[in-house]
């Protein structure tokens, strides 16, 4: 970065708190949460007096849990960090395991500010909220108590509303943090700065200059060990209801008057409410068959452990959304995500309109390619702008150049989970979902989900391609441009 950074808010001097991780033995906790907490601790973003209670179903001593973490996280889990962690067995069918945890934290004088992170299977969220509430852990007596839940926020509109009612029976809205770690990624946060702290892009940010927007989140991984959840969810619930629609909202929203959580949320909700219900032609889905990724053979989705052999669950979708408002009417926002695709790429591609008149038309064989703005989230967080220039030399040839700005190697190493955790601890809600947004996105997706239910058998695409054939061509064009 050239020039001094201006910080909007950078809370320093964190307050001491107790962080309770429910589901501490699971994948998310071990791969993401504890390394993020260890990083915050190492950078002094967690107060020295803070304590962490790791909770799981199995019997385990403090020491054996610490060695589980120490082994898995290498250098990040230092002995100083591990000393802040204790382990407690919790069982939702034994209410007393929650009251003994509360008593243990009180008896040991742990900080009264409490953050409960539910790193649990979604089916357990309601039980966990009830047990915490019934043990009095949602009460705030001069201190704060917050609960963090991970996506998915329900399975559909009705279940999302039910989950919300249960949470609200024990916690106030201000205590509930519905996390979407995509929103804490560097480039995603930068969309708002890029759009609203620069005067040069906003005049072009509309249907007059922008022809299409593509939002791409392709994965090389298959379903792995998550078949039980994934087969009942599918790609629309797993990626579109949360991450992709959030990115769409940030890209399309009107400028809020202030950079404040409620105002930013209000503008995002307006986008969700302006989405035209998707028609059948707006959706293409597929399911991965056997193939090869990076030269290694991989199994078909239906041959993965835990997946029913006759499953019709889509592992790929392309959903074209239209925002029915003055700024965006008629501009397609093409959202794409899938598993076992050729490369892992998360990117927004803003396609500008072609030049209105080409004075080079008599000397060029092809049309002049359109300008594109690439907002890369993975790999290589950064922003690129493609434009035409004269290729150096005696002949008059046009070539495409990509002007790039990379975030790689910048920053203090705090990852998306670390950033989201800091905001939870500070009560800053900008990165989190609000219930009305969740309901609006489920409402929008309902016709697409119903359409998926009717699309059996699924279109099969070979693992290692970019989805069913017409989609493969289109996605290859989006991917290729960023690699120049
Ligand atoms: N993994 C990721 O990268 C990721 C990314 C985004 C969101 N998420 C979300 O984060 C949540 C956790 O995912 P995960 O991948 O970590 O799942 P996971 O590996 O299956 O771990 C779940 C944890 O919950 C515990 N648990 C399971 N069933 C329980 C029950 N009936 N009662 C009490 N505890 C129970 C497990 O304990 P045992 O070890 O005893 O089984 C384990 O500690 C899910 O909602 C998921 O959708 C995960």
How are helices and strands ordered from N to C? EHEHHEHEHEHEHEHHEEEEEEEEEHEHEH
Going across the biggest sheet, name each strand in turn: 16-15-14-13-7-12-11-8-18
Per CATH, the superfamily of the largest domain is Dihydrodipicolinate Reductase, domain 2
Number of helices: 12
Give the low-pLDDT segments.
none
For the biggest sheet, the summary is: 9 strands, mixed
Structural class: alpha/beta
Q: At CATH's second level, what is the architecture of the largest domain?
A: 2-Layer Sandwich
Nearest-angstrom radius of gyration? 24 Å
CATH topology of the largest domain: Dihydrodipicolinate Reductase, domain 2
Give the helix proportion (percent range). 25-40%
The ligands bound in this entry are:
NADP nicotinamide-adenine-dinucleotide phosphate
Number of domains: 2
DSSP E strands, number: 18
Percent range for β-strand residues: 15-25%
Write down the oligomeric state.
Answer: single chain
Describe what this molecule looks like in 3D.
With 484 residues, this protein is an alpha/beta fold. The protein folds into 2 domains: 18-150, Rossmann fold (3-Layer(aba) Sandwich); 183-482, Dihydrodipicolinate Reductase, domain 2 (2-Layer Sandwich). Helix content is 34%, strand content 22%. It contains 12 helices and 18 strands. It has helices at residues 27-42, 62-73, 79-82, 96-107, 125-134, 157-170, 186-196, 227-252, 261-274, 416-426, 435-454, 469-482, and strands at residues 18-22, 51-56, 85-89, 114-118, 145-150, 176-179, 210-218, 283-289, 291-293, 296-298, 316-322, 332-338, 345-352, 372-378, 382-390, 398-406, 432-433, 460-462. Strand 15 (382-390) and strand 16 (398-406) form a beta hairpin. The chain is globular, with a radius of gyration of 24 Å. The two termini are 23 Å apart. The model has no long low-confidence stretch (mean pLDDT 91).
